[in-house]
C-alpha cells in the first residue's frame, strides 16, 4: 500500500500545477515553459515512487494520502485536495507556463489529465479487501490465487481501522472458512491473518471468538506442520491477550495442558516453545493485574512450574529470557508456593547454573549486551524468589 500512496503523491506533485491552471484558465498572461507528463515520464514516476516509497516525509502528499486511506471518492476531490495541499508559489510558477496555451490545447490537456488520473486512481483499502474476500468466497478459485488473496489480506488488515472494516464487510466469516481448507499452507496463512487482525483489537478479538474458532486454532497448534502450529499459536495468543472472555474459553479447552505439552517436550521446534512460554508469562501478568479474578489453579501446579523452570537450561538465550519473565511473574502469584520452587523445581540450582553460563558468555563479544540484560533479569528473579522464601520462613510452623 505504501508504494501506491507514494505513487499517487508523486503523480499529484507533477500534475497539480497543470491541473490548477486548467481549473482556472482565466489568467493567460505570463510566459514560461510547460511541464507536462508524457507516458514515458509517467513510467519514470512509477519507478521513482517504487524506489523512494519509504522516505517520504510527513508533509508530502504521499503521507497525507495515507491519512485518507489511499482513496479519493472522485477525481474532483483528488484535484481539490492536491491544490489545497500545494506550495502556492511553486504552483503558480508552473501554472503560468500552462496559461500560454490556447483554449483548445488546454482542453486537450484537461482530457489527458483526466485520463491519466483515472488510470492511476487507486482503489481504497476497503475495496481491495472486498476483492480479496470475493475471491476467497469463490470455491472455484485456484490454490495459488487463494493463497495470494490471503497474503493480500495479511497486509491489508494490519492497520486497526482496516481490521475493523474487515469485520463490517463480513470478511471474518469468509476467512474463518479457510481454516477447514485441506491445504496446510492455506490454513497457516488463514491463522496468520486472523491473528494479525485480532492483535491488540478487542473488537475483532470478540468477533473472531464469537465465530467459535478458538478450539479449532488450538487443535492446529498440534499440527504436524510446524509452520501451521506456529501461526496457529500466534493466532490463539492474539485472540486471548488482554481478553478475559477469550482466556476463559482457552482454559475451558484445556489450553494450559496444550502449553505444558509444548514446554515439556524438548524435541518440539524452539520457535513454538518460545511462543508458548511467552504466552504463559503474559497470561500470568494479566492475572497479577486483575487481583479480583481468582488465580488459575493450574499456575500453582508443581509439574507445570517445573516445566517452566527447566526451560532455563536451554542453550537458546531468547527462550531463557522468556522463561525468566514467566518465572518472575509466577513467583508473584499468591497461590504459588516458595517451597515448591525450591524443593520440586530446584530453582536455586537452575538460577545458579544459569549465572555460571551467562558469566562464561560475557567473555565473548557476540551478544554481550543481551547477555548482560538477561543476567540482570536473572538477578531480579533471584531477589523475588528469596523474598518469597523469607516470607515462608518468617511464619512459625
Ligand atoms: C489571475 O489574474 C488576476 C489579475 O492579474 C489576479 O488578480 C488573480 O489573483 C489571478 N488568479 C490566479 C489564480 O492566479
Ligand atoms: C459468499 O458466497 C455465498 C454464496 O456462495 C454468498 O451467499 C455469501 O453472501 C458470500 N459471502 C460474502 C461475504 O460475500
Ligand atoms: C470464481 O473463480 C473462477 C476462477 O478464477 C472465475 O472464472 C469465476 O468467474 C469466479 N466467480 C465469481 C462469482 O467471481
Ligand atoms: C514430542 O514432540 C515430538 C515432535 O513434535 C513428537 O513426535 C513426540 O510425540 C512428542 N513427545 C511427547 C511425549 O509428547
Automatic annotation (TrEMBL):
Gene Ontology molecular-function annotations: adenyl-nucleotide exchange factor activity
Q: Which residues form the Nucleotide exchange factor Fes1 domain?
A: 75-166
Keyword list (alphabetical) reads: Signal
Which spans of this chain does the record mark as coiled coil?
none
Signal: is it a keyword of this entry?
A: yes
Q: Which domain of life is it from?
A: Eukaryota
Q: Which residues form the signal peptide?
A: 1-21
- Amino acid composition bias (Basic and acidic residues), ranges on this chain: 45-54
Pfam families on file: Fes1
One GO cellular component assignment for this chain's record is: endoplasmic reticulum
Chain residue ranges for the region called Disordered? 45-67
Q: Which PANTHER family match?
A: ARM REPEAT SUPERFAMILY PROTEIN (PTHR19316:SF32), PROTEIN FOLDING REGULATOR (PTHR19316)
Q: What is this protein called?
A: Nucleotide exchange factor Fes1 domain-containing protein
Per the UniProt record, the lineage of the source organism begins with: Eukaryota, Viridiplantae, Streptophyta, Embryophyta, Tracheophyta
Amino acid at each position: 500500500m505504501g508504494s501506491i500512496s507514494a505513487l499517487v503523491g508523486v503523480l499529484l506533485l507533477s500534475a497539480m500545477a497543470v491541473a490548477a491552471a486548467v481549473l482556472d484558465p482565466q489568467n493567460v498572461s505570463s510566459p514560461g515553459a510547460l511541464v507536462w507528463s508524457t507516458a514515458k515520464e509517467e513510467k519514470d514516476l512509477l519507478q521513482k515512487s517504487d524506489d523512494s516509497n519509504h522516505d517520504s516525509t510527513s508533509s508530502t502528499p504521499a503521507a497525507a494520502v495515507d491519512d485518507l486511506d489511499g482513496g479519493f471518492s472522485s477525481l474532483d476531490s483528488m484535484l481539490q485536495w492536491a491544490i489545497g495541499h500545494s506550495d502556492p508559489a511553486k504552483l503558480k510558477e508552473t501554472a503560468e507556463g500552462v496559461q500560454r496555451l490556447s483554449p483548445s490545447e488546454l482542453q486537450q490537456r484537461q482530457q489527458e489529465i483526466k485520463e491519466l488520473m483515472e488510470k492511476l486512481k487507486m482503489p481504497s483499502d476497503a475495496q481491495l479487501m472486498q476483492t480479496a474476500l470475493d475471491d476467497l468466497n469463490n470455491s472455484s478459485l485456484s490454490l495459488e490465487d487463494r493463497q495470494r488473496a490471503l497474503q493480500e489480506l495479511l497486509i491489508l488488515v494490519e492497520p486497526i481501522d482496516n481490521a475493523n472494516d474487515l469485520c463490517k464487510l463480513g470478511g471474518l466469516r469468509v476467512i474463518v472458512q479457510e481454516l477447514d481448507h485441506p491445504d496446510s499452507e492455506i490454513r497457516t496463512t488463514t491463522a496468520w491473518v486472523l491473528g494479525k487482525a485480532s492483535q491488540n483489537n478487542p473488537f475483532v478479538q470478540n468477533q473472531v471468538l464469537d465465530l467459535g474458532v478458538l478450539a479449532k486454532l488450538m487443535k492446529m497448534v498440534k499440527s504436524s506442520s510446524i509452520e501451521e502450529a506456529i501461526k496457529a499459536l500466534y493466532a490463539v495468543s492474539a485472540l486471548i491477550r488482554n481478553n478475559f472472555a477469550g482466556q476463559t474459553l482457552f482454559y475451558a479447552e484445556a489450553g494450559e495442558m496444550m502449553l505444558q505439552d509444548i514446554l515439556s517436550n524438548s524435541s518440539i521446534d524452539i520457535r513454538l516453545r518460545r511462543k508458548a512460554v511467552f504466552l504463559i508469562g503474559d497470561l500470568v501478568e494479566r492475572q497479577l493485574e486483575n487481583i479480583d479474578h481468582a488465580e488459575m489453579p493450574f499456575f500453582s501446579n508443581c509439574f507445570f512450574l517445573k516445566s517452566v523452570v527447566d526451560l532455563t537450561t536451554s542453550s537458546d538465550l531468547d527462550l531463557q529470557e522468556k522463561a525468566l519473565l514467566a518465572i518472575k511473574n509466577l513467583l508473584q502469584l499468591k497461590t504459588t508456593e516458595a517451597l515448591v520452587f525450591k524443593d520440586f523445581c530446584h530453582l536455586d540450582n537452575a538460577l545458579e547454573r544459569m549465572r555460571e553460563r551467562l558469566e562464561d558468555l560475557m567473555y565473548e563479544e557476540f551478544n554481550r549486551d543481551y547477555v548482560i540484560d538477561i543476567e540482570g533479569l536473572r538477578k531480579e528473579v533471584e531477589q523475588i524468589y528469596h523474598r518469597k522464601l523469607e516470607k515462608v520462613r518468617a511464619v512459625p510452623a
